[in-house]
Design brief:
8 strands, single chain, eight-stranded mixed β-sheet, Rossmann fold, alpha/beta
Length: 288
């Protein structure tokens, strides 16, 4: 495995992102989920299992990851521009892309708007709506003031510290992230706490949570985006997938050109069984 960085600039703001690569052969790009605690590291075990057959690369999203992040008004437009640039910098397209969680909708958008950059697409537990809009049943006018408050120097830092405190992290983990909450302990917990405490972490985090990074605003739009993709799609999800998300995946499965695999591994959270189970599910699809 080789560790690299990718330097990217958006409207005068310089972003340095962690990137790792391994193996040789056809290119597979692994995109981690967007969340306050997600990084490319969650894709590393899967990358290691794919490396004997593919050139596998995983990279952090701007505003996320384990490095300091500049103060930027992160939006779907920014992240979509980054994904297109990154796919051209990593290696010559086309790539197979494996995208987890919210990254799935960005990958669908890329496949539609930039044909020829992706030739095969795996969506792991795909989502299209952030946690707060999911809880509230849609976007609300007061989400924008919340984002503005978190951007303020003093108040924003204090609010963010409260929202990534140990009790809140524990609730997040038990509620919708890990099937086995005890998995996140010791060094793993210390690593996640370092991620949420990285300078500038709050700006992208609050946007994701409040729906500011939702590329689409409805399930209809999400399905329409998937329907317009002209490359094969595989959807992989776990047996404990929440009902709302499972309904999205069931609707995806009805679209032409979409395959699905349900795995007996909880929410498809990152634990020791996750990489092997997912690698076994997606390798035949990638080799077709």
């Amino acid at each position: 495995m080789a560790t690299h960085t990718l330097d990217w600039t958006w409207e005068g703001a310089d972003v340095t992102l962690g990137m790792e690569a391994a193996g040789g052969g056809c290119s597979v790009v692994l995109l981690p989920a967007l969340s306050s605690i997600s990084t490319r590291g969650e894709m590393r075990p899967l990358m290691d299992r794919l490396a004997p057959a593919f050139h596998a690369t995983t990279i952090d999203w701007p505003g996320f990851g384990d490095r300091p992040r500049p103060r930027v008004d992160w939006t779907p437009r920014v992240l979509s521009a980054f994904l297109d640039d990154a796919l051209h910098q990593i290696a010559q397209p086309p790539h197979a892309v494996v995208a987890a969680g919210h990254a799935a909708t960005y990958a669908l958008h890329q496949a539609v708007e930039r044909p020829g950059t992706i030739d095969r697409l795996v969506l792991i537990a795909p989502t299209w709506r952030g946690p707060l809009p999911t809880m509230m049943g849609g976007q609300r006018p007061w989400f924008a003031p919340i984002r503005a408050a978190f951007d303020m120097p003093m108040l924003g830092s204090a609010l963010y510290r409260l929202n990534v405190s140990r009790p809140i992290l524990d609730k997040m983990v038990k509620g919708h992230v890990y099937s086995d909450p005890e998995w996140l302990a010791g060094d793993r917990l210390a690593e996640k706490r370092a991620v949420v405490r990285a300078p500038g972490a709050r700006h992208a985090s609050v946007r994701f949570v409040s729906g500011g990074l939702d590329p689409v605003t409805s399930r209809v739009s999400f399905l329409d985006l998937a329907r317009r993709v002209r490359v094969p799609i595989l959807v992989v999800y776990g047996e404990e997938t929440p009902l709302k998300s499972r309904a999205d995946m069931a609707a995806l499965a009805e679209l032409p050109g979409v395959e699905t695999r349900r795995l007996d591994h909880g929410k498809l959270a990152v634990h020791e069984a996750f990489p092997e189970a997912v690698a076994n599910a997606i390798a035949p699809f990638l080799n077709e």
